[in-house]
Each structure stands twice: as structure tokens, then as C-alpha cells.
Write a structure and sequence with these properties.
Elements (H helix, E strand, L loop, with lengths): L4 H18 L4 H7 L4 H8 L7 H10 L4 H14 L14 H10 L2 E8 L10 H12 L4 H11 L11 E7 L1 H4 L5 H15 L4 E6 L13 E6 L7 E5 L4 E4 L2 H17 L3 H15 L1
Parallel strand pairs: 1-2, 2-3
Antiparallel strand pairs: 1-4, 4-5, 5-6
């Protein structure tokens, strides 16, 4: 199983915040006792920056957490200090997207809706290259493509593979990104991946009419360890947003379930993908 430092950092952040609140300490009081600024402690508790194991040990002593519980959290903090493969691409991956990739690397399931383009995990090299060229220009192009293809390893790993549920607006199948040859290859590839036991693909046809995700694509990430809460991730060209409150996750989960009901079933969706690929051949 992949051990993502991003997921570890997020868990430590949540545990430290809960322990501080349980101890009845404000950010101001705890920060002074730990000899750090209030802003730094706030950023640690919001997983915006990491914290060294020795500082975790000091925080746990302050909150009167000892023994096995303390050592388990310190071990998680050590894991959060490791480097993820995506950090080797920090020259082309913005920090906000590195955070997402770190979550994706350890997710047990991903549920996503895309309105305009093929999801990154299902893109061919040629399609990905054209997407980056159109949305971000030529700078760092090949490095960006390499990082996108590296992300796709989560679908094929053995320990265990992520479960992927994708709902595609029918427009994704019809928009000729990169020209007919690129699209034919992309759609054929997507149909092949959709046959994998851990991938379920739904096509939402135009005939379905209006639907509850018309305003935004999304990804819902869940994790094998119950201690790691699910996340809804939204992004655009310049920023990403992670929603962690249970109400947000529940709302998007209901939306995804509704989209799956409105879409063609997986068998008919596969047939629609194959039909679309022949259109571009």
C-alpha cells in the first residue's frame, strides 16, 4: 500500500487540533507554550505546512498524551517527513495540485465527474500533451505529461488498486482534442480501461437533460483507514480547494449517486465510448 506523506500530514494536523481543543487551549496559548507563532501552529493544524516529529512530541507532552498513543502519532509524523514521487515534479506541479496528488496516491476510491475533458487518470500521452498545450502553454510541457502518466499507476498497483467511478458528460466524447487520430486513440484507450475490474465508467448523455453537477466537476476521495476522512476536491486553472466537512462530502456523494442513475449503465456507456471512437477513426 502506498504511504503518502500528504495523507500523514493531514492526519497529524487533525489529531493535533483535536488534542489542543480537548485540552481546552486556544491557539494563542498553545503556540506560546510550544515556542512558535500562532500563525505557524494554525497552518500546521490546517495541514498547510508539516511539523517535525520532535515538535509533535513536544505538542503531545503539552496536551498530556503519552505512551502508545503518543508513539503512534510520532511514527505518523515521521511518515509525513518522507518525500512523495510527485515532489520530484514540483517545478511543474503547483503546490495546491501536489496536495491533491498526495491524496490521490493513497485513496481507496475516487468518484469523479468531468464535463469537458477526459479525467487525468484516463488520458493517453497524446491527449494529455494537447490538454496541457491548450490550457497552460509549452513551458514544462513534457514534464507535466510525465507527471500525469505517473499518476495513472494508482489504477494498476497491486496493493491495492484504487476503485475509480467516472461519470463523463457526453461532450467529453465529442470534443476533438488534438484531432481525430488523438481522439480515436483516447476513446479506445478509455474503453479498454473501463473494462478493468476496478474502473466503472458512466456516460451522461445529452438526452438526460439538466443534472445536479452542471456547475462544477469534482473528485470525491475516500481512504482505507477510517482515521483519514473523505475529501471533496475541486479545482480550476489557478487554484484547488479541498472540502473536508462531512456535510460537503455527503452532498457530493449524493450528487454522484444521482449522476450514476441518470447516466447510461456501464455496459451501454462502454458501447457509447466504442461508438464515439469509431466516429473519429
Amino acid at each position: 500500500m502506498t504511504v503518502s506523506p500528504t495523507v500523514r500530514r493531514r492526519r497529524i494536523a487533525r489529531e493535533l487540533r483535536q488534542l489542543r481543543e480537548r485540552a481546552g487551549m486556544t491557539l494563542d496559548v498553545a503556540a506560546r507554550q510550544l515556542d512558535m507563532s500562532k500563525s505557524n501552529l494554525s497552518r500546521i493544524e490546517n495541514a498547510q505546512i508539516g511539523i517535525k516529529p520532535r515538535d509533535v512530541r513536544a505538542a503531545l507532552a503539552l496536551y498530556e498524551v503519552t505512551g502508545v498513543d503518543a508513539e503512534a502519532l510520532i511514527e505518523i509524523a515521521r511518515g509525513a517527513q518522507q518525500r512523495g514521487w510527485w515532489q520530484n515534479y514540483s517545478d511543474v506541479l503547483p503546490e495546491w495540485f501536489e496536495f491533491y496528488v498526495g491524496l490521490e496516491a493513497e485513496a481507496e476510491s475516487l468518484r469523479t465527474y468531468e464535463a469537458e475533458s477526459v479525467p487525468g487518470l484516463l488520458q493517453t500521452e497524446a491527449y494529455a500533451r494537447e490538454m496541457f498545450r491548450r490550457t497552460a502553454g509549452e513551458e514544462g510541457l513534457e514534464r507535466k505529461v510525465a507527471a500525469r502518466l505517473r499518476r495513472q499507476e494508482v489504477l494498476h498497483r497491486d496493493s491495492p488498486r484504487v476503485e475509480l467511478s467516472v461519470v463523463l458528460n457526453e461532450a467529453v466524447l465529442l470534443r476533438p482534442v488534438g484531432g481525430p487520430a488523438v481522439m480515436a486513440e483516447q476513446l479506445t484507450h478509455m474503453a479498454r480501461v473501463a473494462r478493468s475490474p476496478n474502473v466503472t465508467c458512466y456516460v451522461l448523455p445529452f438526452s438526460a437533460g439538466g443534472h445536479p453537477a452542471m456547475s462544477t466537476p469534482y473528485v470525491i476521495l475516500t481512504f482505507a483507514d477510517a482515521a483519514d476522512n473523505s475529501v471533496v476536491y475541486l479545482d480550476n486553472l489557478t487554484v484547488g480547494l479541498a472540502l473536508e466537512e462531512a456535510g460537503h462530502v455527503r452532498g457530493y456523494t449524493l450528487v454522484h449517486e444521482e449522476l450514476c442513475r441518470m447516466a447510461l449503465d456501464p455496459e451501454r456507456s462502454l458501447a457509447r465510448l466504442e461508438e464515439a471512437s469509431r466516429h473519429f477513426a
